[in-house]
Amino acid sequence: MAIVDTLIVFVVSLLVGAVGIYVGARVMTDTDSFPKAVVTALIGAIVWAVVAFFFGWIPLLGPLLALIAYLAVVNWQYPGGWIKAAGIALFAAVASLVVLYLFSRRESRRLRRA
Question: pLDDT tens digits for the chain (114 residues)?
Fold first, then answer.
């Protein structure tokens, strides 16, 4: 059961991240390909995890390197350079927080009714 739960959390997290990237890319570059956003979210998560694994223990520098690596993936996938990549990542973070907030509100309402 733990494998199924882990897989569900992974897929939901990937889709939430992809929605964030999709919104950010749509606003910043007028690109509207959800499959490209899913691929970007997947590659970005893998790159972030690898860089954080090797350098995350270094205070300040480790997380900064992971962020730069993530921005490099976004920059590679979408046109516009590093500034637009940072904008896409910022929109992605905000959009992901909004989606997670909406999920939590829905769950808290469901629990109150039970």
Answer: 688 888 888 898 899 999 999 999 999 998 889 999 999 999 999 999 999 999 988 999 999 999 999 999 999 999 989 999 999 999 999 988 988 888 888 766 766 776
Q: State the Cα–Cα distance between residues 29 and 26, nearest whole angstrom.
A: 6
Q: Is residue 11 part of a domain?
A: no
Domain span at residue 83 reads 26-113
**Secondary structure (DSSP) of 31-83:** ---HHHHHHHHHHHHHHHHHHHHHHTTSTTHHHHHHHHHHHHHHHHHSSSHHH
Q: Counting beta carbons within 10 angstroms of the beta carbon of residue 25, is it exposed (0 to 12), middle (13 to 18) or buried (19 or more)?
A: buried
For the whole model, what pTM was predicted? 0.83
Tell me how far CA of residue 22 lies from CA of 6, 28, 39, 58, 79, in angstroms: 24, 10, 11, 31, 14
Query: How many structural domains does the chain have?
Result: 1
Rg (CA), the chain: 16
